[in-house]
Write a structure and sequence with these properties.
It is a single chain. It is built from two helices and six strands. It is an alpha+beta fold and 147 residues long. The chain has one domain. Strands 1-2-3-4-5-6 form a six-stranded antiparallel sheet. Helix 1 packs parallel to helix 2. The longest helix is centred in the last third of the chain and has 19 residues. The termini are far apart.
Length: 147
């Protein structure tokens, strides 16, 4: 067990949130309430990604993003994300039904969150969005998902 306490790197965190904001705007244009598309996985299988508008206000928008995979080796993902339009940031507010994640945790803790759990959730969203933009078939082959 490490005796050094994790320190939040605010500059890196905000940079990731800003990049996620712009990626999400590419995947869900402002004139749409939802987007659903297929993403080709590296193993040749595909997954379905659904982005849905939950709430829209003057300065913030709340969306959900769900990834449904057909592979037994991978699990589905569910994100709730708040977009802050004035700051141009997108932040994960819930992941896999875990809400109100703190910026850092002592480790070990009751829920066994990592010290940088919030950072990891936003980084995972970054990786998923980049993969969707690079491998998604949203424009070419839109699919419908009834979830």
């Amino acid at each position: 067990m490490s005796t050094t306490q994790y320190k939040v790197n605010l500059a890196n965190y905000l940079a990731a949130c800003e990049a996620n904001y712009w990626r999400l705007l590419k995947l869900l244009p402002s004139d749409q309430q939802s987007a659903c598309f297929s993403v080709q996985l590296a193993n040749g299988q595909s997954s379905v990604v659904a982005i849905k508008l939950q709430e829209q206000h003057r300065y913030t928008t709340m969306i959900s993003l769900e990834q449904h995979v057909s592979s037994p080796l991978l699990s589905d993902s569910h994100f709730e994300i708040r977009l802050y339009h004035d700051a141009m940031l997108a932040e994960v507010t819930a992941f896999q039904q875990h809400k109100q994640i703190q910026p850092r945790y002592r480790y070990p803790n009751k829920k066994m969150y990592q010290q940088d759990e919030k950072w990891q959730q936003n980084l995972f969203l970054s990786e998923l969005l980049v993969y969707c933009l690079n491998n998604g078939l949203a424009v070419v082959e839109p699919v419908t998902y009834q979830g």
